[in-house]
């Protein structure tokens, strides 16, 4: 053990089993020096490690200190209890020597690491710094040595083993650097250790990886025979010797994607190093907001590896930061030269990787090359699926991965229940180049694409076992591998059939991640490839056509796509008898028909779905058809039946629709909660509606962002705006903006709600009509524009009124026609009052027929105001009062407050007339 650790152990021995407090230990061993408590813990750990099987004899008294238990004899009776001094030998006359070069620049981002290593060196006699090439092992070891030398009271010698090609020359190299004379021609580890003897020495063995066995023997021999010598070694892998403490050198810290503020970004070591090197090469290099964000992205992409950052920074003057970021996936970076004075293996990243690659066994080289097809992380099973073949067995792959981990070419993430592995970015680029050179790229890429397909196709079982966020967290990270596999599949060396199969299999992941634009293009490409020739992937064709319908910007085209999907489904059904494939085209068709407010067509499609469900005797099919029917009935204006059906679905014990029924439309039961909350508000139960909406929104989080956005846009936000709860509406709209940022439909819905809300928050009369253009210019926008018209009268235009008059507006027909009546009344002119009154009476009739008490109240309020202007106070009161008194809750909402105020005015006016 190291000097300080031995001092602590001596104090515990002298205390004869009594408790020694932490403060006492630190005062005895580090007199007049302030040290942190974790420093003491490091040394206690070293003592236990040295004690081996007797490690439990050092007992911890929680929060107090330590004691040594057991029986022992102190042979040195004269040893002082008060002080422990292992350095009582007289100081030598000669000065202490070292050959460590002076630092050419400040070591950036390693202050904490230097402090840790100083602690470790006083607790352990052998420290090995491991890590991949370019991580900065040598720079860190030298900085620690420079820092220690002034107070070390011994010699510090650097032995660079990089130039050795013969491992047998390691002892000679060490002897040469130390200047020790060996007897005769003897140059073994033992002879070097005997020459060192009891000298106090810090020996730095740098670059041990290519002579690892010889370096390990040399280091262990010195530790055994030279009690005052400590060793720092640097190597891509551990020496694996007795007493060794391995310190894995971490990459420099990088900012995450959420840390975009300049002051926060600049606190990270990787950014500081990049900027310092760029400025040293270009004094005019200036930082701006966009450049700093690009630098942060570069640092993340290069994994905070110092050498990679320095070489990248050297090209900022040539390319600029943004262009440089675009080249990070190219082999260009591997070939770019760094410092001219650097060791040859560090002048380019390619040379650095060559140094590591050549130390690997043939199997390890093959496995590393093949693993480069993964874009980021992978599991051990994924590695076997891609890297194994007739020559490289499963066992060989596992052994090779362990070797690559040992040599710092793969990193391990065990933070979840499954272990993940990944190479650093530069390692992956290098290995990919080697894969191309080997001629193995196409075969490996095929295995990778098939593996990705297989994983996605088996994800169906997990859909029912875990909640949606967990499912997304598991399969969402596969998107990068999906993109890589598709790029190969549609390349000249690829396989279009695999690309089609993969696109279809990836749809649930893409849709749950709201990658609408990306998958719209992928689906179009897959359908185009299918159109070019016969395909045996009939099930994939169905799914792709449904996806084309779901992702299309124009529902009319989507409805045509669902017709094609239905034809394909019937063809597949005739071959297999599988009714499941027939459901999703109909579900999507009904959804699109709702979007274009063709409620009659949607009702017809929903009926077809019900018939299909009944014929299948499948409870899941019945659940799906009931859910769709409740949605269609509500929007068609049949609220009572819709609510009863929705509640039946909501009470169903099955909470998840299997992906087999809904690969593209796959959602949990969000829509039934939406129907219930909306109908409650329309029926006059605004408080219950708001509470139900809150409850269903909370449940939607278990179904992922899409379900949350659906609940917000169809129920939570509209109900808050309808009731006039603008404070709550602001919170919900902001949530929709955040949750739906990656989906243009949800984003546009949030912005349109915001435009409705903003002028009401500010007390203005009109909103900015510009934000509604997204919906006005799309066929499916009529649904949203009608919805917005129920929140702001100024958004009800002539087209909306025409649709309502033609019986196309379904659920919101009463409100749209009421606004028409208000427009007639405001316009004035001959017969305007009678025409407006007739309109309002018609609205009241429609609202009562629908069971929409909320619309009935608005219509009654409008008609009562019209009669008030004609001094028909009694008729107005007789009309409005019965409607108002049918409400049992929500008297603090906007519409009921307006009605109550008008009733009070009418009663007062009528009272004045009667008293007169």
Search tags:
916 residues; mainly alpha; Arc Repressor Mutant, subunit A; Rossmann fold; five-stranded parallel beta sheet; 44 helices; 10 strands; elongated
> In one word, what is the shape?
elongated
Overall CATH architecture of one domain? 3-Layer(aba) Sandwich
What is the CATH C level class of one domain, in words? Alpha Beta
Radius of gyration equals 38 Å
Structural class, from secondary structure content?
A: mainly alpha
Question: Which range does the strand content fall in?
Answer: under 5%
CATH third-level topology of one domain: Rossmann fold
Number of strands: 10
Q: If you average the pLDDT, what whole number results?
A: 87
Terminal-residue CA separation: 109 Å
CATH superfamily of one domain: P-loop containing nucleotide triphosphate hydrolases
The tally of helices reads 44
Low-confidence stretches: 78-91
Report the major sheet.
5 strands, parallel
- Strand order of the main beta sheet, please? 5-6-7-4-8
| Helical content band | 55-70%
Give a quick precis of the structure:
With 916 residues, this protein is mostly helical.
Describe the structure.
- With 916 residues, the protein is mainly α.
- Among the domains are: 3-68, Arc Repressor Mutant, subunit A (Orthogonal Bundle), CATH 1.10.10.10; 111-248, 3-Layer(aba) Sandwich (Rossmann fold); 262-344; 359-439, Arc Repressor Mutant, subunit A (Orthogonal Bundle), CATH 1.10.10.10; 441-530; 812-916, Tetratricopeptide repeat domain (Serine Threonine Protein Phosphatase 5, Tetratricopeptide repeat, Alpha Horseshoe), CATH 1.25.40.
- It has 44 helices and ten strands.
- The strands form three sheets. It has a five-stranded parallel β-sheet with strand order 5-6-7-4-8, sandwiched between helices.
- α8 (212-225) links the parallel β6 (201-206) and β7.
- The longest helix is centred in the middle third of the chain and has 23 residues, at 441-463.
- The N and C termini lie far apart (109 Å).
């Amino acid at each position: 053990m190291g000097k300080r650790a031995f001092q602590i152990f001596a104090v515990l021995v002298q205390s004869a089993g009594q408790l020694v407090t932490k403060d006492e230990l630190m005062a005895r061993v580090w007199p007049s020096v302030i040290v942190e408590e974790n420093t003491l813990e490091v040394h206690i750990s070293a003592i236990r490690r040295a004690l081996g099987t007797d490690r439990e004899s050092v007992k911890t008294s929680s929060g107090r200190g330590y004691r040594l238990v057991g029986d022992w004899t102190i042979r040195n009776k004269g040893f002082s209890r008060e002080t422990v001094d292992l350095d009582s030998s007289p100081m030598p006359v000669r000065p202490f020597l070292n050959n460590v070069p002076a630092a050419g620049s400040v070591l950036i981002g390693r202050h904490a690491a230097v402090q840790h290593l100083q602690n470790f060196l006083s607790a352990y006699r052998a420290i090995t710094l491991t890590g991949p090439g370019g991580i900065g092992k040598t720079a860190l070891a030298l900085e620690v040595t420079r820092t220690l030398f002034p107070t070390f009271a011994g010699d510090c010698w650097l032995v660079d083993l990089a130039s050795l090609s013969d491992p047998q020359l390691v002892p000679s190299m060490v002897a040469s650097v130390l200047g020790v004379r060996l007897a005769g021609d003897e140059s073994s580890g033992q002879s070097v250790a005997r020459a060192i003897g009891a000298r106090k020495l810090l020996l730095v063995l740098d670059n041990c990886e290519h002579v690892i066995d010889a370096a390990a023997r040399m280091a262990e021999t010195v530790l055994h025979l030279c009690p005052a010598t400590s060793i720092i070694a640097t190597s891509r892998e551990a020496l694996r010797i007795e007493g060794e403490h391995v310190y894995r050198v971490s990459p420099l810290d990088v900012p995450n994607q959420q840390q975009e503020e300049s002051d926060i970004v600049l606190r990270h070591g990787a950014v500081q190093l990049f900027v310092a090197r760029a400025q040293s090469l270009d004094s005019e290099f200036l930082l701006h907001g966009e450049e700093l964000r690009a630098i942060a992205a570069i640092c993340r992409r290069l994994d905070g590896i110092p050498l990679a950052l320095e070489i990248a920074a050297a090209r900022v003057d040539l390319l600029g930061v943004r262009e440089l970021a675009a080249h990070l996936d190219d082999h260009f970076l591997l070939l770019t030269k760094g410092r001219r004075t650097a060791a040859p293996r560090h002048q380019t990243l390619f040379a650095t990787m060559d140094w590591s690659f050549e130390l690997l066994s043939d199997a390890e080289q093959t496995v590393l090359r093949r693993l480069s097809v993964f874009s980021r992380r992978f599991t051990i099973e994924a590695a076997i699926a891609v890297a194994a073949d007739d020559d490289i067995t499963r066992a060989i792959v596992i052994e090779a991965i362990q070797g690559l981990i040992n040599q710092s070419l793969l990193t391990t993430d065990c933070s979840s229940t499954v272990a993940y592995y990944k190479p650093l970015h530069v390692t992956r680029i290098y290995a990919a180049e080697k894969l191309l050179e080997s001629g193995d790229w196409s075969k490996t890429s095929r295995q990778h694409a098939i593996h990705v397909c297989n994983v996605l196709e088996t994800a169906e079982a997990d859909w029912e076992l875990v909640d949606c966020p967990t499912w997304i967290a598991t399969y969402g990270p596969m998107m990068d591998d999906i993109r890589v596999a598709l790029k190969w599949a549609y390349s000249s060396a690829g396989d279009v059939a695999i690309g089609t199969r993969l696109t279809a299999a990836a749809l649930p992941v893409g849709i749950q991640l709201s990658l609408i634009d990306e998958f719209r293009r992928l689906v179009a490409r897959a359908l185009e490839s299918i159109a070019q020739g016969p395909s045996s992937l009939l099930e994939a064709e169905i799914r792709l056509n449904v996806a084309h319908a779901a992702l299309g910007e124009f529902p009319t085209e989507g409805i045509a796509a669902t017709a094609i999907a239905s034809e394909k489904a019937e063809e597949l059904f005739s071959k297999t008898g599988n009714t499941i494939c027939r459901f999703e085209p109909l579900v999507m068709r009904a959804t699109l028909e709702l979007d274009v407010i063709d409620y009659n067509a949607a009702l017809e499609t929903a009926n077809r779905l019900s018939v299909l469900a009944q014929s299948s005797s499948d409870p899941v099919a019945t659940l799906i058809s009931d859910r769709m029917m409740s949605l269609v009935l509500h929007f068609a204006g049949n609220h009572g039946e819709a609510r009863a059906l929705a509640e039946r679905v909501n009470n169903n014990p099955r909470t998840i629709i299997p992906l087999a029924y809904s690969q593209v439309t796959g959602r949990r039961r969000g829509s039934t909660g939406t129907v219930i909350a909306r109908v409650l508000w329309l029926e006059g139960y605004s408080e219950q509606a708001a509470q139900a909406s809150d409850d269903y929104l909370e449940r939607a989080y278990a179904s992922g962002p899409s379900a949350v956005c659906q609940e917000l846009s169809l129920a939570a936000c509209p109900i808050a705006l309808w009731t006039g709860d603008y404070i709550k509406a602001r919170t919900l709209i902001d949530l929709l903006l955040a949750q739906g940022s990656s989906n243009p439909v949800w984003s546009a819905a949030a912005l349109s709600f915001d435009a409705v809300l903003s002028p009401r928050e500010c007390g203005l009369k009109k909103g900015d009509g510009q934000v509604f253009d997204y919906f006005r210019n799309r066929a499916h926008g009529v649904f949203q524009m009608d919805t917005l018209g129920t929140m702001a009268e100024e958004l009800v235009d002539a087209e909306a009124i025409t649709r309502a008059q033609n019986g196309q507006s379904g659920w919101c027909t009463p409100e749209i026609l009421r606004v028409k009546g208000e427009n007639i009344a405001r316009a004035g002119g001959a017969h305007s009052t009678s025409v407006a009154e007739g309109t309002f009476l018609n609205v009241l009739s429609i609202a009562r027929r629908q069971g929409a008490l909320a619309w009935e109240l608005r219509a009654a309020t409008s008609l009562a105001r019209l009669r008030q202007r004609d001094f028909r106070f009694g008729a107005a009161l007789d009309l409005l009062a019965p409607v108002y008194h049918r409400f049992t809750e929500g008297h603090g909402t906007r519409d009921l407050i307006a009605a109550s105020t008008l009733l009070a005015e009418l009663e007062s006016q009528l009272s004045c007339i009667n008293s007169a």
